Amino acid sequence: MAINKKIFDTLIKKASESGIQAISCSYNQTKNQSLEFTNAKIDGTDISVNNSFSFKALVNDKIGVYVVDFYDESMIDDVISTLIDLSNYGKEGKIEYFTKEESKFKNLKLYNKTVAETPIETLKTMGYELSNKIKSKCQLVETTSVSLETKEMESLYVNSLNTHYYDHATESSVVVSATFKQDDLVKSYYEYEQTPDEITSINTDKMIQSLVKNGMDELKSEKIKTGQYKVILSYQPISVILLNAIDHLSGERLTENTSIFKNCFNNESVLSKKLTVRTDSSTRSLTTEVADVDHRPIKDKQYIIKNGVLQTPMYDNEYALKNNTTSNTLVGASYRMKEGKESFEEAIKNIKKGIYVQRISGLNSSMNPLTLSFSCPFEGYYIEDGKLTHKINLSMISGNCKDILKNITKVLNQTSDKYNMFACEVVVNKVSFTSK
Amino acid sequence: MELNLLEVKKILNEGLKTGADFAELFVEDTKKSNYVLFNKRIHNISKVKTQGVGIRLIKNDSEIYGSIASFDTKEILKLTKKLASNFQGKQTFFVRNINKEEYSSIPSDVVSHDSWTTSEKLDYLKKAEKYIYDYSSEISNARLVLSETDSKIVIYNSQGRQINNEKISTRVAFVAIASNGSEFEDSSFSPGISGGLELLNSFDLKTECEKISKEAIELLHAPYCPSGEMTVILGNKFGGVLFHEACGHPLEACSIARKLSVFSNKLGEKIASDVVTAIDDGTIESKYGYISVDDEGNKPTRNVLIKNGILNNYMIDNLSSSMLIKQNQGVDKEKFAPTGACRRESYKYRPTTRMTNTFIDNGESTLEEMIKKTKKGLYCVSFTGGQVDPSTDKFNFTVSMAYLIENGEIKNLVKGAGLIGYGYEILKKIDMVGNDLELAPGVCGASSGSIPVTVGQPSLRISSITVAGEGN
Question: In the structure, what pLDDT confidence band is assigned to residue A283 with cuts at 50, 70 and 90?
């Protein structure tokens, strides 16, 4: 991509002449191609190049932000006058200045891979093969869907304090799904995998194997009794629950009195002592952030939660200013849970009656973001005498993120970064379930 | 905004060069403004411009889509060439003439977004904020949002049509948050219209702000909802989100034509109880889901989806229409005609079948009768949202505020209820439909992005549904 910081030179110069104290410009370009197959037929192909330019100006110590899809020098006057107008009503803030040490941050995620340039023919061949394989693996497969996507994101950040960085990330993903039909019963399942590498590096055989097994098990799913159970939460549910809870550690929520962790930074274990979480931007996933919300490099290996003790509120520039402190660059970071010692096999062995929650769905629409209480459907297995026995039909899991994190009794020893953080499966005592 | 017609013809013909039977350019220039007050401060004022072009080519029901953030016809042509290279064949359709059509969903008496200054808009929000805080000392926060969208769309297609469309929408969201120091609850009021700032004069600001403040405080002191199988009365207005999730999405022809919906091949069959008549109607002017023309140039219709329990029609876009007609060997072409229901969030999204203003029509019962005839159940009055898997019709949605019913009488308020079930089962379990139909705005997210819609229904009773909750 022809990203060149010179495209902002004239704007930065003119902004300074117009009374703008400082200005930052960020430019993101996302290239993606995706193919969708339904029943082994190409349904849709998308090839897109999307741009986003975000301008932030400081005028009279107040911030104005303006976002546009495309920008060239003919828009300079519009950008400057809009920013000045918006900053009249804006919040107090500042434009970031990176130290010499922080400037190492430049090119942190520059990869040579050309994932987004994967030939479309490769995707076509892969899609047909996957669709046919799913169908051939199981006679009860009624419909198949395959979705393949390659993405590349490049961004440039430049500001009038002579700071800039360039960021480049890639991602390939595969989604396979199917409906399974037996008599009048129809069930569906999907599998999703992503990698920062070429799409062909994804182990699709393993995905299909899991899709078919889970789909068949869904057909044999049974109800459970409404009540409280010991559970093992898999990577997706624990990631979603933990990320929602981490959001309540933000300086914004704590300052605005909308955090469930208000008055909880007291060196006591507010959450389970088994739970330790720190920042980690080492993954090359597209969703892993290397910069915080203010474009500052995230400090790696900073503890957020240590043995259940909340370590520090997470301050961005705005809320650091409001609290007379400095940004600790934790807002918008990526996180890692500290692994435990026990394996999944060892953990399940000790559960007489319980539930293995593979995925929860619709949490965002069903959770109260203020209280972090939720009731939503899930996919999972019933556990009896240390073994997975059957899938569970039409049931809901209810609880509160804080309570669940408080009641973790074990963190297991495997890590996955599939769901926006490095997460480990966990064992939790007493979670409520409702069934028909 | 309009592109040079000679260039447009060149691009469309380039798209058709490898045998596509349809080519389309969707040119968009949208301006969005958001004004947010939170915790007695201006939290955010933002302006976002969405500008670019979406290119769609279709050949034998296979669709190729590309988008580019540029109005530069050279760049658009380059992308079109790349897209067309995915088809193999010779050009059989040619674009020679293009005729312009004008559409607008802007009301004649619109109060435009630029008729108020930023200060006036902020003063309005501050007034609402004061009403909320003044209601009680238990109110800990208030969040007030005004969102404005002004769009200009031009669609050019290989059938020789140029469709110019102007759209405007406005929405406010007032949220009152009550707290006792350690716990929080909130309640909100969020009206929206396909129109301008006249929205702000369409309700009594003080009454609505005090209402949500009262509700947030009541919720703070309310116990959690018990769980189990119950008779449930869904209140009118936003109660319609259940139909939207459980039945609306599975009736979108993009799922039907690909046989990915439980309602595929079920036209004419009884899928709901006799008391259920459901409609998708994009023609209701000024409602949030109103469209003067859809995003591929078809006029909206009043589409009766279910009539007295019988599946009468689907919501259909052009591509799904063509697929359904082929699947039926060309028989009953009219049955599968497009219904003006093709929509997208922006040029960045491939358009597909979506809902507009979707609701269950009035019945004959009254809310009082429903409550009186319910021995033990739940009366749900406000809702958060939900989702559905169209292939199995399994849905869930969340109730933010509900009352227990015992022996035909409303008892105490409860919070945090979730409803789960299969849409096709629930439709048959609706045994009473009220006569108090009202519509409510919402934002629907699906494969073609987030779009403004309206949901609605009169109060209605479901004889039995699974309710999840943490209470006893």
Answer: low
